[in-house]
Each structure stands twice: as C-alpha cells, then as structure tokens.
Amino acid sequence: KSIKMLLNKLSDRNMIKLLEEFKIILSQHGMNNTYEEFVETFMECVIKPSSLADRFSLIYTTFLSIVHFVTGNEIMAVFLNNLMKKYCQYFEALNIGEITKHCQNIVSVVCILYDFNNIGYVLISDLIKKLLERFREQDIEMILQILKYCGFDLRKREPVVLKTIIIDVHNRCKNAEKMSLRASFMLEVITAIQHNNPSKVTDY
Q: What region, left, alpha or beta, does residue 117 occupy, with left being phi > 0 and alpha being psi -120 to 50 degrees?
C-alpha cells in the first residue's frame, strides 16, 4: 500500500523527495517485500493494454533508474525478470490475435533503461532478433520503436552490434513476401542512423 501511494504521487518534480520515502519503506519492510511490491505496482501503472504517453513511461522508468543506482543491482534483476516474463506472455498473446499495446509499453521501458545505462545492449539485440523472426506489423512497429529510441546511441556505443542488427533487418526485408509502408519507413530510419542524421527520423 505504501509503495502504491508513493508511485501514485510520482512526478518529475518530486522524485528526490519520494526517493527518501522509498528508503524509509525499504528500511521498515525489508528488501524482498519492498522490491516485490515496487515491481508489481510499476507493472500495474506502466504495462497497460493501451498506448501510454512517452512522458508517463519516462517519469516512472526514471524513478526506477534512480532507485537502481541508489540501492543496488538486486531491484533491477527482480524487475527485468518480471518484465520479460510479462513481455513473453503478451508477445505470445499476439500470436492468437489479441491486439494490445502491452508489448510496446514494455519495449518503451527497456529503451529508456538502455538510454540511462541501467542495462546493456544484449536485451535490445535479443528483442530485435525475436521480432524479426515473426515480422508482423506489430513487430515491425516495435523494431521501429527500438531503432528510433536506441539506434543513435547504439551507433556511438556499440557500432558492431548495430551493424549486425542492420544486416539482419535488411535480410529479413528481402525475404519478406511483401514490403509494408511501415517496413519501408524502418529502412529509411536505418539509413538515417547509419548517416547519423536524427532530423530524418520523424514519427510515422
């Protein structure tokens, strides 16, 4: 209940104050209970069936990032384990025609965590590989989401990884029966990333 009340009050103006409240809750209720409740409440707030505003995801994930850096790696390990279980669950649901935005909202959180250096490139790369295997419109949308958010950072930090991703995307597009408009735009985004031209990456 304390964690829910804390996260319900969260805004970009009160994060430091709420971090101090989080530390008090942690000292009173212990690491395991606090982390489990935090992760569960975070999921309820952010992993929704409809699209969330970028600012909303950013505020919650920023607070998670701060908590991670202040309290240590365990909370992030618990969080990522639960997050990817949820992702796999909703990813499989898309196979049976259940159209929701759960996966896109999870991808947004992962991208922000990568941007903040809470996680490395491996999870980003693994997500793209899995999406390329199925390569439906929702999957292309999520690949685009990752490339637009993380592509230029990958270019700076992990150029070899980005090169592999680009080759994989091009190969998958070549083997596709038909190129959708979204897939064509994805290739344009890749070209912009290769030429380090953020101005060419617009909303689609």
A: left
Are the C-beta atoms of residues 111 and 145 closer than 8 Å to each other? yes
Task: Let me know if 78 is exposed, middle or buried by CB neighbors in 10 A (0-12, 13-18, 19+).
Answer: middle
In the chain, where are the structural domains located? 1-119, 120-203
Locate 96 and state its tokens: 């049976």
Give the closest residue to 10 by CA, choosing from 44, 54, 56: 56
Q: Which two tokens stand for residue 89?
A: 């669950």
- 109, two tokens: 């959180």
- Summarised one tens digit per residue, pLDDT across range 62-108 is 999 999 999 999 999 999 999 999 999 999 988 877 778 999 999 99
Structure tokens at 122: 């491996």
Cα 148 to Cα 89, 151, 174, distances in angstroms: 25, 6, 21
Is residue 143 within 8 Å of 193, Cβ to Cβ?
A: no
For residues 163 and 128, the answer to whether their CB atoms sit within 8 Å is: no
Q: DSSP of 34-75, one letter per residue?
A: HHHHHHHHHHHHH--SS---HHHHHHHHHHHHHHHHHH-SHH
